[in-house]
């Protein structure tokens, strides 16, 4: 389970961001993971190191400024395919590819690999903004995401959970108040604080429908932006912020639980990465 809020700037100006992204990763506390770091393949992001799935990720940025995020679809009890292909490599392969997001997603559509359901976002850097494409594996189609504010969760894009709709409104407020480069530190702090909100957004008909057969307590725990369900050792482990400004400077900040995770007194560590990808920039913005 993951949660993503995204702002794509429709009219980039000096002192603004092309794209603003904040993401929560919900996962089993026991699943081994490396915190965000620069990979040999010139990708920056966290890394799944669970046996058999080593080298996958849920969120990453490439040296060329490409960004991708994977969000699993919440399923009713008993529908998970144990032999499904690993979804984490979908992000990695896109970030490594020279293809655009749309070209890459066409390749996925034509492949015969069987996955458990997911949403995948590909983000290609452009001169003044980002070209963002959304793919849903169940419907096996992709669509361009228009500039503006968007929220994505563990359901179809047109059937969002309540927490996604509520979080989207808060995200928009933060962008309006702190969405300039001069307020970068405040922006990051506000986004991370927003993603720590443990208020339940329940009942939620869509969440309940997708969670048929799951325990009510577990389903209810998933209705908050920040998830905690100690009973099965599951919850929000990582919050990440990615900012790309008008000069193509990339800022990636991660707040993640330090392993081994102590649920009674979790220790959080911060990772930061700054880079700049090579891309033509209009003189009017300099």
UniProtKB/TrEMBL annotation:
Please give the GO cellular component terms listed in this UniProt entry: Golgi apparatus
Q: Name one Pfam family in it.
A: TANGO2
GO biological process annotations for this chain's record?
Golgi organization; protein secretion
The source's domain of life comes to: Eukaryota
Under the heading InterPro entries, the entry gives: TANGO2 (IPR008551)
Xref: PANTHER family: SER/THR-RICH PROTEIN T10 IN DGCR REGION, TRANSPORT AND GOLGI ORGANIZATION PROTEIN 2 HOMOLOG
What name does UniProt use for this protein? Transport and golgi organization 2-like protein
């Amino acid at each position: 389970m993951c949660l993503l809020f995204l702002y794509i700037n429709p009219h980039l100006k000096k002192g603004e961001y092309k794209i603003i992204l904040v993401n929560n990763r919900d996962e089993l506390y026991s699943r081994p993971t490396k915190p965000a770091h620069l990979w040999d393949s010139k990708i920056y992001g966290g890394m799944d190191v669970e046996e058999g799935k080593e080298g996958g990720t849920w969120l990453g940025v490439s040296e060329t400024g490409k960004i991708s995020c994977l969000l699993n679809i919440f399923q009713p009890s008993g529908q998970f395919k144990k032999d499904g292909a690993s979804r984490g490599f979908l992000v990695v392969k896109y970030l490594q590819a020279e293809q655009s997001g749309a070209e890459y997603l066409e390749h996925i559509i034509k492949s015969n690999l069987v996955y458990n359901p997911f949403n995948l976002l590909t983000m290609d850097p452009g001169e003044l903004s980002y070209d963002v494409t959304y793919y849903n594996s169940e419907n096996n189609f992709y669509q361009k995401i228009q500039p503006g504010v968007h929220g994505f969760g563990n359901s179809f894009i047109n059937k969002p959970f309540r927490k996604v709709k509520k979080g989207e409104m808060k995200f928009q407020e933060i962008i309006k108040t702190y969405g300039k480069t001069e307020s970068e530190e405040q922006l990051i702090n506000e986004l991370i604080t927003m993603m720590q909100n443990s208020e339940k957004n329940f009942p939620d008909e869509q969440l309940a429908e997708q969670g048929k057969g799951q325990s009510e307590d577990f389903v209810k725990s998933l209705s908050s932006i920040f998830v905690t369900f100690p009973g099965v050792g599951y919850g929000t482990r990582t919050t990440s912020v990615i900012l790309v400004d008008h000069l193509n400077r990339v800022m990636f900040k991660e707040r993640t639980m330090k392993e081994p995770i102590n649920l009674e007194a979790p220790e959080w560590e911060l990772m930061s990465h700054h880079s700049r990808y090579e891309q033509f920039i209009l003189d009017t913005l300099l």
